[in-house]
């Protein structure tokens, strides 16, 4: 997964319009919190999440993906007809079938020659999508590729709060579903291109991936519920990240002090602090958004990268490390040279 001819021609994100504060969630859960004797504000004091964003209740997921895709295509400055493959990487979906990719493709008016499909791999899927598209570009199969992601946590929140407020809920049941209350909504899209077509664009160099699938049981979710062993997931996730970082050091020549920005999958304060401590990363090199946006799943990495671009922090020649972990467990680390 190392490339010589792949660049980022367009990058965009979309913040969901409505804010749901942790204070409001605590208020709605007060009967259960009081009955179980939970006095610690776990969402804000432990996870560090004060708020998260939600879509309009009737917002189709594919519409959000289409909107952010149009922004990325416009930034790339190309006609949609030049896109050779569309890959959707969303965990969320409006239907089991057809694919989200097919709906977005139709709404964008992409040609019948454009392949389109979904890739699912929990929070790691967007980076997986970049790698799949990168390989197709590197082999000369397509000139331009579009990766999209939109996440919708609206239903999960309503159903989780409803379950946690039911009579007789136990400490263990509450703890198992707590991570669902850290999720957020958002969307991101990226246009990758053959480097020769955009010689001044940021280069996607690819990366490395490692797996620890013996831990696939630590986080399991569906459209309205997620059950997570947060403690063990963090412990084993960090172990896998160390293995992956060692591979990135060898394949990409990484040294922590030489990287200019670290784009880390945003889950919580505990997860981010563990990453920084484990690898000795300067906090100034990490833009954190979890405190206002929560965990936006696979959209997290591209959203942070897009926000860094908007802020003007990505100067020409800067080396950016992309670090993601997804339930499964799987971990990818990749590099972009701006």
Question: Key features?
Answer:
338 residues, alpha/beta, five-stranded mixed β-sheet, four-stranded mixed β-sheet
What do these coordinates show?
The protein is built from 12 helices and 13 strands. 37% of the residues lie in helices and 24% in strands. The chain is an alpha/beta fold and 338 residues long. It has helices spanning 22-28, 30-36, 42-46, 61-76, 100-108, 125-138, 154-164, 171-177, 230-252, 269-279, 290-293, 300-311; strands spanning 6-15, 18-21, 51-54, 83-88, 115-118, 144-151, 186-194, 203-211, 219-221, 226-228, 261-264, 319-326, 330-337. The longest helix has 23 residues, at 230-252. Helix 9 runs parallel beside helix 10.
Largest β-sheet summary = 5 strands, mixed
Strand order, biggest sheet? 1-7-6-4-5
Approximate shape: globular
Outline the low-pLDDT stretches: none
Which bin fits the share of residues in helices? 25-40%
Give the H and E element order: EEHHHEHEHEHEHHEEEEHEHHHEE
Total strands: 13
What's the layout of helices and strands?
Elements: E1 6-15, E2 18-21, H1 22-28, H2 30-36, H3 42-46, E3 51-54, H4 61-76, E4 83-88, H5 100-108, E5 115-118, H6 125-138, E6 144-151, H7 154-164, H8 171-177, E7 186-194, E8 203-211, E9 219-221, E10 226-228, H9 230-252, E11 261-264, H10 269-279, H11 290-293, H12 300-311, E12 319-326, E13 330-337
Parallel strand pairs: 4-5, 4-6, 11-12
Antiparallel strand pairs: 1-7, 2-3, 6-7, 8-13, 9-10, 12-13
Quick summary:
With 338 residues, this protein is an alpha/beta fold. 37% of the residues lie in helices and 24% in strands. The chain has helices at 22-28, 30-36, 42-46, 61-76, 100-108, 125-138, 154-164, 171-177, 230-252, 269-279, 290-293, 300-311; strands spanning 6-15, 18-21, 51-54, 83-88, 115-118, 144-151, 186-194, 203-211, 219-221, 226-228, 261-264, 319-326, 330-337.
